[in-house]
Amino acid sequence: MKDASPQALVEIETDGDIGLIRLSKPPVNALGVALRGAVHAAHQTLQDDPAIRAIVLYGAGRFFSAGADIKDFGKADVEPTLPQVLKALNNSPKPVVAALHGVAFGGALELALACHLRVGVPGLRVGLPEVKLGLLPGAGGAQRLPRLTGLSRAIDIICSGRDVAAEEALEAGILDLIIDAPARDAGIDAARQVLSGTLTALQTDSLQVAEDDASVTAARQRLAAKRPALAAPLKALEAVCAATLPIDEGLARERGLFMGLMAGEERAGLVHAFFAERATGRIPEQDVPPRDIAQLAVIGGGTMGVGIATTLLIGGYEVRLIEAQSDRVGAAQEAVTANLAGALKRGKLSEAGHAAASTRFTCSDALDTVAEADLVIEAIFEDMGAKTALFGRLDAICKPGAILATNTSYLDVNEIAAATARPEDVIGLHFFSPAHIMRLVEVVVADATAPEVVTTAFALARKLGKVPVRAGVCDGFIGNRILTQYRRAADYLLLDGADFAEIDAALEAFGFAMGPFAVSDLAGLDIAKATRDRKAATRPASERYSRVADLICDQGWYGRKTGQGYYLYDNGKATGPNPGAMEIVKAERQALGLRPQRFTPDDIVARCLTAMIAEATRVIEEGIALRPVDIDAVELFGYGFPRHRGGPMLQADLIGPETLIQRIETYAKDDPQFWQVPALLRRMQRDKRSFAEMNSGPKTTEKGQAS
Ligand code: CAA
Questions:
Q1: How far is the CA of 27 from the centre of ligand 1 (A)?
Q2: Which residue from 25, 39, 70, 643 has its CB within 8 A of the most atoms of ligand 1, so it is best to mutate?
Q3: Tag placement on the chain: N or C end, fewer CB within 10 Å?
Q4: pLDDT of 300-339, one tens digit each?
């Protein structure tokens, strides 16, 4: 995002006695210090012009404005601050109209709320999404919104951070009117109505807010129950409650709460996650135009294939799903149909979109029908022999220029590519289950993969609303490789004395939706055992191996689907730890002569997180991931890493290399094979470097950095 020159940030023009201020800072008119300073000055100029009787603010480009410049967060405040600019607008003796189009989020809506009248154009979305960034509206939004909507609606909008469509905004009193015209014309129209007396312009700050104890109490209970780990929603509630005070007291209270959150780790984590989602698109191949793709094929009608076919259909593509076993074709077809119905129900598809998706879908056992597909995604079982055989056949069937992708979770994509005479067209597209819900796609670039195949994969994933992350070839790529070490750390903690319920509880308190043992039960212990069995022959003899999961499987306890695993289940709901599994753990500790140690929740989190960070550091060292921020994106969008923690690499920077090295060296006294200090971590300690610094450079911009 290039900075426009200060002169170009706003344009002032006049239409008779109406002065117009156009915000013009591509791509989203973010209200950083330069733009808000320019707005302030432009407003002053028009105030001082005796020929001007009303002022209109509107935005150039796709949006009115996306709000404050998120890149400024964490930096020292520079005057004029947004609250100062908005106070001046609200106190303006001439009526000020905000004419809104596209989006007006955060500070942009706060700006509009400080004006004396708001006109929206159809399609506008407004909102105060600050809680999603670990903040609250700190430029008067929590004081001025309730003055227009009442306390209850303001609590709903501010504490959820949700978008509000123009129609709801009108009904709620946020907008005064909707005019179907370009924002500039709508603004002039509204200003004329104010000047002629048909519309009343109001100074928001002069309004009063009625107390509403019932709504406040209900919201406090709801937020504490729903998001106990997050500070921002409850602080935002406190800020909204201050709206019943005189305006200046409320504004001061709000600003104090805002500054407290601005300094917090929750804000750092959520802002990092915002930029991580966008940073992954900066890849070495980014300037190479992608190939056109319209018709896609998915091979394999199991859970993954069905999920991938669904997401492609929702994305608007024509999809052929091929299930080799003819007796399973019907089930695959029904599963996709059910997924599409679910998407319709959740509002992911409109009625028309649902009907269209259904007509674009076919399912059969005839592989040769994929001949005209532009991109084929293989999603069969994880067996190299089966995959290479299939790719050999696809090579013979598919048209020249078709991209052949594999959804393998850990197999060697170079070996799969070598089974074809077109390795440049072969790539890994690793979706996560359920593929129509999970946002991560690891784009695995093999040695011969052509650059435009990479950009095509990225373009496809973005069109599907996914977060594509470029990965190199290795066993498990980025995510599963780190997951393996995280799981091992948890298994060793279990052997060494922490109970699985304690481990799960500690990681859930850290913010994971489920701890590792609850996840294993959900995924099926038999599935993980099959993978371990497959890898047994290549496992180093020196590697510490926990047999606990195998012994639980030996009982026929495969987790949730069998009613028993680490936990007991009743109708799919966990009812508590499985005493039988606890006995197995204890017996195994005894058999190994291990005296159980005590681990606090902090110890548990420290070990699991350090294991992740150490492996992630090696993933960076080896060039498997482009940057630390890509690893954070993988963990956030594919593995349930708590968003407000920003990802393991942001956590690593918060902990610091020195402490991480100390931890690894301490843990290594018991298990030197597992706990090894990555060389990069030592260099970072020596050179006083952070992972955030590695996010900058030619592959990304400073936006990928932790703020
Ligand atoms: N500040 C800085 N950069 C922003 C930004 C913001 N508020 N909003 C978007 N951008 C950047 C993005 O990082 C992206 O940059 P790159 O192209 O360099 O990666 C670019 O603008 C385009 O954004 P998207 O890729 O997201 O484009 P989109 O069309 O898909 O979505 C959007 C546009 C709906 C505005 C979306 O970007 C969005 O929701 N932005 C966040 C809005 C937000 O949270 N605003 C509140 C900020 S907090 C605040 O305003 C109150 C305060 O005082 C603290």
A1: 9
A2: 70
A3: N
A4: 999 999 999 999 999 999 999 999 999 999 999 999 999 9
* Contacts of residue 606, Cβ cutoff 8 Å, sequence gap at least 6: 663
User: Could you tell me the two tokens for 383?
Assistant: 């067996």
Q: What is residue 677's three-state secondary structure?
A: coil
Please give the Cα distance from 139 to 80 (Å, whole number). Answer: 12
Question: What is the model's pTM?
Answer: 0.93
Domains of the chain, residue spans: 1-124+175-204, 295-471, 479-623+626-694
Other residues' Cβ atoms within 10 Å of the Cβ of residue 84? 14
Instruction: Give the closest residue (by CA) to ligand 1 atom 18.
Output: 1
Max Cα distance, the chain (Å)? 91
Q: What is the mean pLDDT of residues 489-516?
A: 97
Q: How far apart are CA 229 and CA 1, in angstroms?
A: 33
Mean pLDDT over 249-278 rounds to 96
DSSP state of 289: P
Name the residue with the closest Cα to ligand 1, atom 16: 1
Q: Quote the CA–CA distance of 560 and 575 in Å, as a whole number.
A: 11
Bridge-based pairing state of the strands 163-165 and 177-178: unpaired
Per DSSP, the residues of 541-561 read TTS----HHHHHHHTT--BGG
43 counts as catalytic: no
CATH topology of domain 1-124+175-204: 2-enoyl-CoA Hydratase; Chain A, domain 1 (3.90.226)
pLDDT for 228? 83
Check if 480 is active-site: yes
Phi, psi of 348 (to 5 degrees): -75, -25
Q: Report yes or no: 479 and 633 within 8 Å, Cβ to Cβ.
A: no
Instruction: Give the pair of three-digit tokens for residue 213.
Output: 């104890």
Q: Give the closest residue to 258 by CA, choosing from 83, 29, 64, 125.
A: 83
Q: Can you tell me the distance from the alpha carbon of 243 to that of 325, in angstroms, rounded to the nearest whole number?
A: 64
Active-site residue, from 254, 318, 378, 442: 442
Question: For residue 431, how far is its CA from the centre of ligand 1 (angstroms)?
Answer: 26
Cβ < 6 A, ligand 1 pocket: 1, 27-28, 30, 63, 66-71, 82, 103, 105-107, 129-130, 133, 135, 137-139, 278, 703
* Domain formed by 479-623+626-694, architecture: Orthogonal Bundle (1.10)
Q: Are 387 and 407 in contact (CB under 8 A)?
A: no
Residue-level pLDDT at 7? 52
Q: Residue 127 Cα, ligand 1 centroid: separation in angstroms?
A: 13
Per annotation, catalytic residue among 215, 407, 409, 690: 409
Residue 327, classified by CB atoms within 10 Å of its CB into exposed (0-12), middle (13-18) or buried (19+), is exposed
| Cβ neighbours around 411 below 10 Å, total | 20
Question: 295-471: which CATH number, 3.40.640.10, 3.40.50.720, 3.40.50.150, 3.30.470.20?
Answer: 3.40.50.720
**What gap in Å lies between CA 88 and CA 76, rounded to an integer?**
21
Specify whether the CB–CB gap between 453 and 425 falls below 8 A: yes
In contact, 138 and 113? CB cutoff 8 Å: no
* φ, ψ for residue 12, nearest 5 deg: -110, 135
User: Residue 508: how many CB atoms within 10 A of its CB?
Assistant: 16
Pick 2 or 263 by higher pLDDT: 263
Distance CA 629, CA 410 (A): 21
**Chain segment 122-154, per-residue pLDDT in tens:** 999 999 999 999 999 999 999 999 999 999 999
Q: Give dist(CA 386, CA 300) in Å, integer.
A: 12
